[in-house]
Structures
1.
Amino acid sequence: MKNFFMRYNEITGLKDKYKNLNFPSYTLLKFKMAFINNLYFGSSFHFKNKIFSKKYFKSSNQKKCKLYKNRMKETIESKNSEERKQWFESILSVREKTEDRVIENWKKTAFNVLQNTPFPSKNDESWKLTDLSNFFKMRFQKKSEKTLSESKIIEEYLVPELKNRIIFIDGHYQKQLSNLDNLENKINFLSLDKLNGNKKIEIFESMLKGESGMDGGFFSILNIACLNDIFLLEAKKDIVLDEPIHLIFIGTNEEVANYVNSRILIIGGEKSSFKIIQHHSSYNQSKYFENSATNILLKEEAKLDFSYVNEISEKSCHISSIHADLNKNSKLNVLTTVFGGFMSRISLGVDLNGVGAYIEINGASITDNKNINDFHSRISHNYPECKSSQNQKNLVSGKGRSVFAGKIQVQHGSTCTEADQLCKTLLLSPESRIDSLPILEINNEDVKCTHGATVSDLDQNQVFYFQSRGVSIESAKFLLTLGFIQEIIDRLPPGLRQRLSDNVVKII
């Protein structure tokens, strides 16, 4: 009898369990009676001249449940699709027109490609780990005529030891606030409209490939479709610059969300050596989306120290597409530090296109609250005797989420390749999360490649050691956390290092 009631309850409970599947009440009642009357006549029973088995019943409801789930999925996808369309339309409403014919032609080409390019989603391999739900809720409007005092805007971003500076406010170059007086005979800095037609086309061709080009995905294409201007920063042949050039990008909109579009091309002439700091920040708690694209081209034996700093407000988001081409015996040192934005993503692609080319990448990111930091990299060894090294450190607290996806590619014929990759993550909360995807794609035997990833919380043995020396547990955790990330920050100039360290202290 006990078995009877167990099986009966299994049937009678279906109405509540699958109430959204529209079971007719009278049909369910008759089904119950047929089941009771025939319970002990085997595993099957008759109902309306049909034979029903337990297996059939289970299979039938699995199909209905699957159908229900599919309908729910379709409803959600339809809602997300409509939301993304509204987001895209709001960007188009603030898109600026340019007078340059070459730029306008490329904008139209990119826009046509964009219309056939799907929005990033979890179905996309490169975006499946990044939650874009809050990002696509943003709506953009044209900025009001009211502007803030320029001197008031920039005073907190100037670093005393960085005298060479180029300033952009809301994506627009500010000549009166910039200072390149000491570099007139060493670098060329100009907008694309200053070049003749053939030179413009040549510049575009160098920019329209890799992560920041037409094949770089939705946001790189969007950047081209919304171009205001393109700026060229070129270090001349044989020039050596000891003092860094500080590129400052400031977002200022506070009333409504703003869309900021920026693109710059950095060229290192043969045997040149120079340093650039690309610094993105926000004025107060400005709300905007910055879509940034950077191209780097190093000619033979050129050397560049490139630092990328992101400290935008938590109301803003930042997506950066960076692509670098390295020629014979050229060297690129990349430093990335990301501490701001409710959603930040860097897509870095490097092509080693000459014998002896070398790339070194050091990165640090701090994620807290419900923010997302995403770092994707691709390093392609296309020639023999090239070297690459990558060291990424992530600090995740609260309900923050961090993503690291690094791919090293060794192409056919790229002999004597050396490459190493390491991602270390420190989780400070049980609710924090990291997704690490180190990847090696090797198509050659004569290589030396390593990769790895570690995830941990604070080492309790180290905490205990500090305590045994009279240090409080709070101070011990603070020192260990700061020490973990400080290794990367210390590579920056003193003034900027102190600025970022103060921000780290606030987060920790």
2.
Amino acid sequence: MSNLETAARPEYLCRIAIDPLSRVEGHGKVTLLTDKDHRIRQARLHIVEFRGFEKFIQGRPYWEVPVVVQRLCGICPVSHHLAAAKAVDQLVGAQALTPTAEKIRRLMHYGQTLQSHAVHFFHLASPDFLFDFDDPAAHRNVGGVMTDYPDIARQGVRLRKYGQEVIRVTAGKRIHGTGSVPGGVNKALTLQERNELLADIDLMIQWGRGVLKLVKQAYQLNPGYFTHFATIRSNYLGLVRADGALDLYHGGLRARNERGEILFDHLDYRRYSQVLREQVKPWSYMKFPFINSLGSEQGWYRVGPLARINNCDFIPTPLAEEERREFMALGDGQPVHMTLAYHWARMIELLHATEAIKELLLDPDIFGEERVVRGEMAREGIGVIEAPRGTLFHHYRIDEDGLIEKANLIVSTTNNNQAMNESIRQVAEHYLDGKELTEPLLNQIEVAVRAYDPCLSCATHALGRMPLIVELVEEESGTVMDSLARDADGTVRSEMSAPSRSGFA
């Protein structure tokens, strides 16, 4: 781990904030502490919003949860919908879904993966590939892409629209649908819906192959920068199918270390708490998960497209598998650790999603009538899925009345928390240290964060553990009349002179 997490004597350092982070989902910031010589002494990623879903869904009926938790986020609601639905399946004793139910859910999930990856790459990340860092901020955005590269921008819109249509016909709505119910789904596809989606799927596959060429061209133009920028060595975690294949909907947990050695394999994800722990730090709303056997200092890991491509043995669709083999050659027999390679891996998954959608659209099971199963009720359910941003955990316990008694969510961005912090510290140390900081230089910090495609609104769950300062301010003069502070351990104290916010930044 980097030594830039906590600076000695921060009160004597200059604080620089990148606030807000641009072109990410949700609200966040990065703070840097520098000395008089512009040397970086501290770098931290912060989430500046709080959701608290784990607390306020307590007392709600279990069957509401797959719909309610979608309100965590408007970008990845399907992922929360499906993870919660898989947990609720266990509550109602549905040990195995009908073929129709599982394939409809898979189709929904691949639609979500396609639209989410398209949004991130084309609308949020593509300016990092198409424009220089010193390009004016007013142009270095999706508007600039639409002006200078209209064909690329249109492809992004069309790919996202197609993914949203897949979600609509499987979940009932493009956003916050209700398709998954306890023990299955509430609708199958009609022949007309299937045929409408089939009409454009080959074009989506073609565009998926095209965007991969764009990413590989960016690497070939500057391989040294691509290889070293924000690159960190880490462990990797994700789901794999029983035969080791990439599986975004279901599978067992596999973890590898930085050398590619397997730490555990095909672990029943309902046992996740036996191998993972969650650490809380006083300066962050987000939790810091780690592999328990390695400890908090060495056990942090990465999830998401890069982790999944590194972890799996193969991809079960031919075009994506061909791309995976080319990608893995970058590691020369070891995992690919390049943080910017997240974009490359993400586009491999986008191509895989289009291929998988086509396979499912040609499967007659998607028209089936048997869509729901039930069994003996249980008091606890755990659902895990590979969301676009990485492994997503939903864990619920209910009381005798079927009301949520306890909930724990470990979202994809939370799993990447330490890794994102390590990446921004690498950039700060190697590219910013000792320099007078300018907007183009600070943008490199944002590039490192954007590579992970964080969904910051999903990721804040450390209720009751955050330092907090509440001030009573006189309106006319701005004088602080009173101040109440809560420390990380929950201690509440009154302070007539408010402490500096920099300690809580």
3.
Amino acid sequence: MPPNMKHTEEHRMTDSTSPVRRPSFFQGVTYTGAGTALNIVFLFLETMVAVRVLDTETYGVYALLAVVVNFLVMITDVGSTTSVTQLIASSPNTRQSALVSSAITFRLIVIVFVSIIILSLQQTAIFLLDPSMVLLDYAIYIPMMLIAVSLDESLQAILQGYQAFRHMAIANGLRTVLRLILSVVFLLIFHLGMKGLIYSWVISFSVAVVYEYFVLPYSRRLSIDWGILSEMLRFGFPLQLNRFLWFVSARVDVLLLGMFIGPSAVALFEVGGRIPNALVRLTQSYSAVYFPTMTELLSKGENYKAHRLLNRSLRLLSFCMALFALISVIFGQQIINILFSAKYDASSTVFSLLMIGLQMNVLVTLMGYTLTSAGYPGRSLTANAIRETLIVVADLVLIPFLGLVGPAYGKLAAYYVANPISVWMLRRSHIRVLMSPYIKQTTLLWLVTVLFWWLQPQNILIRILMVVIFIALNIALSTISHDDMELVLPRTLIKRLNRRKEIVSHAQ
């Protein structure tokens, strides 16, 4: 690079004016939420096509392959990527270029190393990851999938640190739309079966990587600043352990179902978990904005704003997840049949149980982000370690006895145990968290759920009435407010709602 060009690049990064305009919290949620929502819709369409074209056993093998690849993606992180978002958000512009270069370069080195091991020791590596060995025929594709997904993850984390949520949304949109189109083409036109899903995965992620790389606001030289890398790894290691534990608890059920029962059980469980996992991803788009925002507030000493953001977020997410959980309980079987066909009818119970547990899991996850933002990743790790251990133990105990629904019951119990532990960790860290609103929301969810299980009403109007009653009771008990909805709704709409509320109150 010529000296004058280098100076220009450095000036661009060190100037007090950030190269990426920081959006508002609502704008950030809108960008990431829209991108994630689009991703979810298109992945659902892909799944709807795949489960109808492939038999349950083949789709189960594909689900196992996805778990293995995502596990390796997590391994290649080593803590560098998980910390880069927080460090970029809290560092001056002068350090950001070195942070980004070091994170990407180090990730590339680790990816190459892991890929060589997979290709050189195929049988041994696959056996360690999948004792059933059903994935051996597809081992050659694992490095390609690993490279594409790992780089996408790193670049998304960097863009998140810059709060470049619009670019994140565009990349997600590109990846998702292309993946759906290619999946349909490869499955329905070229009849490639499972290989078609693999090809669509690799190509779509690669296109997203190219876009993300060229919109990065930094000088694109690959190099490592060993001092900065050491800092990233020290900060990121507890985060990575946290992520590892989460992955084990979230995905060990698939591996154990494959070992104890077979790929068909994996397919049924994956279909039952498709909607809960989609909602987890949707809440992650919220967390993608929440995490750097909370980090910035706490680093500036604006504790009141930080605590207010936490409690508003807890009320909002808890209400939304409880509402979705109730809908899954009341209409679960119909939803599964419409989306995935009657051959996945057995997935409806898994779907309902996972949705009920999801409400509490989302709250625990948000509390973990808060602890990390406050500089206590170790405490977040401790809370999550307890949760994940309970999940793994429950899976080992319940799968042999309960089969398909065993992991769902295990997760439900573990999430409810983890919540008070996370609250205690927050209060120990002098972070004020209000439990009363979401306790009321959870109580109402269980009351209406038990009532439905007892009555088993067949009339569709009665079922809809139960959902309406749940919403009305939450409004009456003030567990959710217009103020909370401001986080995800335009201010103009909130003002209109408040104006109508004032008119009604004056009329009375």
